[in-house]
């Protein structure tokens, strides 16, 4: 495989090739996602919800993110591995943001970090990039700010927030980000943003006018089943298939059918 780099992603935008991105938090899943040829693997702080069962992304720690990321990195041969900076690991000041990013790069072997926010974290982004660490931005619905927003509904529907988001996107590009994630904003706005910057814009619930798409893997394969936003396309229904497999296994044990003569020594 030829490895995907931050440069490959910018080239994809230039050539009009859409970027594919999925999450992974562990070795086994990352191996499958990478083997399928997905361009970018995000070790998202959504691990806080999906892996640990928390209601929000706030509780996951930097140490836990590094554990997830190092497991993913060991599996990946081709994809670019981007690791979320978790809540509390960068907001205090730019030095803390850099220190956390350095820990992620050294201790996990990830290739880039992702950080939520715009203008308010500009200095932190510059400092991280100055150290040679590629940064992906994240605007729109930024789940680490859920207690400020109050709900997980669509962001930037009002002109004022939309204008601020457009400014933030330009600012992230100027600060040196190699890409931006836009989460849950109107498709028209996302398309405008993608056209206004030369770096790739990757959407989740941001329509088809952007340069690539990202989904949470466990959602798109239907392992989770209680989360049903409009933007989520389910490619499998693993919740039902796995439930059925576990039930059959139990039945086979109870009936004495498992293990059979060929399944023992
Ligand atoms: O943590 C995550 O999974 C994310 C994506 C939804 C973009 O940030
Ligand atoms: Na995230």
TrEMBL record:
Pathway: Cofactor biosynthesis; (R)-pantothenate biosynthesis; (R)-pantoate from 3-methyl-2-oxobutanoate: step 1/2. Its EC number is 2.1.2.11. The keyword Magnesium applies. Its main location: cytoplasm. It is found in: Cytoplasm. InterPro entries: Pantoate_hydroxy_MeTrfase, Pyrv/PenolPyrv_kinase-like_dom, Pyrv_kinase-like_dom_sf. Mg(2+) binds at residues 45, 84, 116. Catalyzes the reversible reaction in which hydroxymethyl group from 5,10-methylenetetrahydrofolate is transferred onto alpha-ketoisovalerate to form ketopantoate. It comes from the Bacteria. Its cofactor is Mg(2+). 3-methyl-2-oxobutanoate binds at residues 45-46, 84, 114. Keywords: Cytoplasm, Magnesium, Metal-binding, Pantothenate biosynthesis, Transferase. This is 3-methyl-2-oxobutanoate hydroxymethyltransferase. It comes from Bizionia gelidisalsuginis.
């Amino acid at each position: 495989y030829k490895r995907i780099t931050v440069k490959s992603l910018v080239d994809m935008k230039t050539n009009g090739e859409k970027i594919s991105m999925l999450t992974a938090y562990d070795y086994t899943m990352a191996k499958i996602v990478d083997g399928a040829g997905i361009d970018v693997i995000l070790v998202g702080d959504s691990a806080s919800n999906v892996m640990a069962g928390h209601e929000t992304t706030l509780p996951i720690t930097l140490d836990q993110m590094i554990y997830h990321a190092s497991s993913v990195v060991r599996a990946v041969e081709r994809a670019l591995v981007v690791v979320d900076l978790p809540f509390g690991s960068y907001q205090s000041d730019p030095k803390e943001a850099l220190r956390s990013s350095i820990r992620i790069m050294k201790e996990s072997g990830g290739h880039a970090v992702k950080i939520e926010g715009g203008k308010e974290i500009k200095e932190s982004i510059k400092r991280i990039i100055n150290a040679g660490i590629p940064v992906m931005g994240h605007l729109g619905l930024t789940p680490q700010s859920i207690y400020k927003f109050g709900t997980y509904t669509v962001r930037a529907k009002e002109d004022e927030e939309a204008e601020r988001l457009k400014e933030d996107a330009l600012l992230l590009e100027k600060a040196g980000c190699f890409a931006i994630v836009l989460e849950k904003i109107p498709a028209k706005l996302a398309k405008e943003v993608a056209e206004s910057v030369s770096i790739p814009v990757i959407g989740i619930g941001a329509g088809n006018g952007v340069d690539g798409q990202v989904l949470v893997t466990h959602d798109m394969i239907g392992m989770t089943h209680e989360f049903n936003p409009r933007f989520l396309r389910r490619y499998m229904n693993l919740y039902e298939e796995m439930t059925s497999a576990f039930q059959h296994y139990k039945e086979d044990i109870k009936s004495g059918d498992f293990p059979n003569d060929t399944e023992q020594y």
